Amino acid sequence: MARIFVVEDDAALRGELMRLLELQGHVALASTAFDRIADEALAADPDCVLLDLKLPGDGGHAVCRDLRRASDVPIVMLTSSDNEFDEVMSMNLGADDYVTKPYNPAVLLARIQSVLRRAARTEPPARIEHKGVVLDVAKSRVEYEGRGVELTRNEFRVLHLLMENKGAIISRQELMMELWQSDAFIDDNTLTVNVNRLRKSLASIGVPEGFLATRRGQGYLV
């Protein structure tokens, strides 16, 4: 799993975040040397940095700027502020995502997974194959045993994410983050509708029913 560096001056919250990450199998790292925290984070060689906006000294924006000048490491900002200016400033300085406190642990973990996936991506293949099912990325089309069907935008996004991570369970939260980049105003049933439509499209070309499997309480996989 990933090495994640936590920059949070509240000791209780820092400990809570580190325990949450460790329960997911990540390696959680931290430092309280806030006068040189960017250097501390870079020296740890993390896969992702969770960065609190309100820090002693110059604050999280300055740390974000210093990290981005020296590295492409994914940065997820954490803040109790719902000020749009802070969010815009963070993204302009190079943050990859912005999560407000109090955060939903499942949503935070999904956003971390999303930025980690984006950072790990290389040039995407033109076609992805799994169990005889072929996804044509350029044409948003899926084929099976000589038959094919074009997918809607959301059908394609769901299948693309699942086939990029074939054999791994992708949570509903991760799928919603990937599709809409936000957990706000998204009815959980909307994702179910899109998955069911995708299953019908797959069935229309003869893909076996069990290809797109549900793991109750966990998510989906192919």
UniProtKB/TrEMBL annotation:
<dbReference type="GO" id="GO:0005829">
    <property type="term" value="C:cytosol"/>
</dbReference>
<feature type="domain" description="OmpR/PhoB-type">
    <location>
        <begin position="125"/>
        <end position="222"/>
    </location>
</feature>
<dbReference type="InterPro" id="IPR011006">
    <property type="entry name" value="CheY-like_superfamily"/>
</dbReference>
<protein>
    <submittedName>
        <fullName>Response regulator</fullName>
    </submittedName>
</protein>
<dbReference type="InterPro" id="IPR039420">
    <property type="entry name" value="WalR-like"/>
</dbReference>
<feature type="DNA-binding region" description="OmpR/PhoB-type">
    <location>
        <begin position="125"/>
        <end position="222"/>
    </location>
</feature>
<keyword id="KW-0238">DNA-binding</keyword>
<feature type="modified residue" description="4-aspartylphosphate">
    <location>
        <position position="52"/>
    </location>
</feature>
<keyword id="KW-0597">Phosphoprotein</keyword>
<dbReference type="InterPro" id="IPR016032">
    <property type="entry name" value="Sig_transdc_resp-reg_C-effctor"/>
</dbReference>
<dbReference type="Pfam" id="PF00486">
    <property type="entry name" value="Trans_reg_C"/>
</dbReference>
<dbReference type="GO" id="GO:0000156">
    <property type="term" value="F:phosphorelay response regulator activity"/>
</dbReference>
<dbReference type="InterPro" id="IPR001789">
    <property type="entry name" value="Sig_transdc_resp-reg_receiver"/>
</dbReference>
<feature type="domain" description="Response regulatory">
    <location>
        <begin position="3"/>
        <end position="116"/>
    </location>
</feature>
<dbReference type="GO" id="GO:0032993">
    <property type="term" value="C:protein-DNA complex"/>
</dbReference>
<dbReference type="InterPro" id="IPR036388">
    <property type="entry name" value="WH-like_DNA-bd_sf"/>
</dbReference>
<dbReference type="GO" id="GO:0000976">
    <property type="term" value="F:transcription cis-regulatory region binding"/>
</dbReference>
<dbReference type="InterPro" id="IPR001867">
    <property type="entry name" value="OmpR/PhoB-type_DNA-bd"/>
</dbReference>
<dbReference type="GO" id="GO:0006355">
    <property type="term" value="P:regulation of DNA-templated transcription"/>
</dbReference>
<dbReference type="Pfam" id="PF00072">
    <property type="entry name" value="Response_reg"/>
</dbReference>
